[in-house]
Design a protein that fits this description.
Layout (H helix, E strand, L loop, with lengths): L1 H15 L5 H10 L7 H23 L7 H21 L9 H27 L6 H31 L5 H22 L4
């Protein structure tokens, strides 16, 4: 049970660590196009993200995949930028027709984000004979943290739109634009060539 708590907490704080805010930024741009009443769709999104994240962690933990860290560190903010840019370009339509696009972003970009933690995860599990159980425990922590963050984003969006009267399109545009600004700075800071 203590191993479960350890790996679960590692997954939880991997996402909730404000020093590594790239994960939070991606969750913001991924979910900002949705309304609170669409929580089931958003739950699918974050679960697909966790699956993608876990696949690359598993491939790395088993020594199947090894990608240059500097490349991954640049690709992570690029995924945030692309998702935010797509939100800006399609904000007028809000989430209509974006489900498949966002499902793809969640799964594919989850693969990239998982690579960002893969080296640390390999060190964390060491030469353990059973790598699958710690991976699943870690993934549960990641999923729980993502649910917390996304529910917060949906709640803030709902309050901004219902109480403050913010237009949904404006909510998506402003929020996504702010995140794009952070992503651009991160990309410039992490240029690998």
């Amino acid at each position: 049970m203590t191993d479960f708590i350890f790996y679960f907490k590692m997954g939880l704080f991997h996402v909730l660590d404000f020093k590594a805010y790239d994960h939070i930024l991606f969750l913001i741009v991924l979910s900002v196009v949705y309304q609170f009443k669409q929580w089931k769709k958003v739950l699918w999104l974050i679960t697909l993200f966790t699956i993608g994240h876990s696949i690359t962690l598993a491939l790395s933990a088993f020594g199947i995949l090894n990608v240059r860290a500097d490349l991954v560190e640049f690709l992570i903010p690029l995924t945030i930028f692309i998702t935010g840019l797509m939100n800006v370009l399609t904000a007028k339509k809000a989430s209509v027709g974006k489900e498949n696009q966002n499902l793809f972003f969640a799964l594919f970009f989850g693969l990239i984000h998982g690579l960002g933690f893969s080296n640390y995860f390999k060190i964390m599990i060491g030469k353990a004979s059973n790598k699958l159980i710690p991976l699943l425990e870690f993934a549960l922590g990641v999923e729980a943290a993502q649910i917390i963050i996304v529910l917060g984003i949906l709640l803030i969006g709902s309050l901004a739109q219902s109480i403050l009267g913010v237009n949904r399109r404006d909510w998506i545009l402003v929020t996504s634009s702010i995140v794009i600004g952070f992503a651009l700075q991160m990309m410039f800071d992490r240029v690998f060539w």
